[in-house]
Amino acid sequence: MTPLGIVDSAGQSQTGHVRSHNEDSYLMRGPLFLVADGMGGAAAGEIASTMCTEAFAEINLIRLRGADALRSAVSSANTSIYDRAQANPELAGMGTTVIAALVDEEAVVTFAHVGDSRAYLLRDGVLRRLSEDHSVVAELVASGHLTEEEAVSHPQRSVITRVLGAEPNVQVDTFTIDGADGDVVLLCSDGLTGMVGDERIAELLAADAPAETITRNLVRAALEGGGEDNVTAIVFRLGELDDQPTGSMRLILTTDPDLLPPDDDGSDSWRPGRKTLFAAIGTVAVVAVLAVGAAIGLRQSHFIGANESTGRVEIYQGVPWELFGGIKLYHVVRVTSITYASLDPQTRKDLFDHRLRSESDAEAEIKRIEEGSP
């Protein structure tokens, strides 16, 4: 029987339309693939994701196999990032997500996952998400407090509950799948999944095209959807190795220069399509209506959430809605001393239900937690 293996692979990364620099990194090293999405402000996120990628690039794939190799790399990366952040106050709070895949000689694919970057599998035309987000909204969906549709536009969707570099130790999820002929695997940062729905992702992955073309089209779709974050995608395909070319080995630590080819008309700049333009016009109309009818309500309404960069619990004034283009109908009125990670699961569910409260009720809830009362 002809053995299975990696017959095609490619990766792409782009800064997007909002951020000034790319905090994503990715790795393609033979049978090892990785996407890391850094965070921490300034250049700290880029440093963290680069350090993570470098740690995985140094794995001894001969001595360590499968989950052991990935866990070792995660541990090494976490220690390095944490120690550097502790030693340099300017880098305090930096961290990174990671989603990694390692393919062995039997076409068994082992994954390691921390954060909200994702792994997908397209098999026989059906898309399956392999990883579960470590995030506030994922917990709310799992507990029944939010639907999947509500989670997509939730204002706390970027607050993650696990990250490399935040603590001396980190919990990592590892799992395996038995590869099959024709499998297409996608690793990506949330800059893709936040802008492109699963149905469109499945359509692009199913295209009869090289992995290089597919990854470019995925990144383009994220940019056309708004490009509100850095976007990174790796695609690799499994198939029979009979005289098939294999994916190239390379290490990418930052965004690719000149990533996207020119548009059909020869222009080298991205322009929003009609769908994006219509959505923007619709947003202006919505904002105009809300500005007239909801000003008083926004001033009186408060809710409790968490800061995606610092992890601290905050009180917000307004309503937990975010319109197209990042227009927020809320703002921070108080930063507390409480961290999201310090709360038990039940308190998280009670606190982050995003029920609208008066300012006094929100303050009373925070005070109860700060004082440790039952």
Summarize the structure.
The protein is of the alpha+beta class and 374 residues long. It folds into 2 domains: 4-252, Phosphatase 2c, domain 1 (4-Layer Sandwich), CATH 3.60.40; 276-370, no CATH class.
Describe this structure in words.
The chain contains 11 helices and 15 strands. It has helices at residues 44-57, 66-87, 136-142, 148-152, 190-193, 198-205, 211-224, 274-293, 295-300, 345-351, 359-370; strands at 4-14, 24-29, 32-39, 95-96, 98-103, 108-114, 118-123, 126-129, 173-178, 184-188, 231-240, 250-252, 302-306, 312-323, 327-339. The strands form 3 sheets. Strands 2, 3, 4, 5, 6, 9 and 12 form a 7-stranded antiparallel beta sheet that branches. Strands 1-11-10-7-8 form a 5-stranded antiparallel beta sheet. It has a 3-stranded antiparallel beta sheet with strand order 13-14-15. β13 (302-306) and β14 (312-323) form a beta hairpin. α1 packs antiparallel against α2 (66-87). The protein is globular and about 70 Å long. The protein starts with a strand and ends with a helix.
The helix/strand order is EEEHHEEEEEHHEEHHHEEHHEEEHH
Please state the overall shape, judged from the principal axes of the Cα atoms: globular
**What structural category do the secondary elements indicate?**
alpha+beta
CATH architecture of the largest domain: 4-Layer Sandwich
- Provide the number of structural domains: 2
The rounded distance between the terminal residues' Cα atoms is 64 Å
Largest sheet: 7 strands, antiparallel
- According to CATH, what is the topology of the largest domain? Phosphatase 2c, domain 1
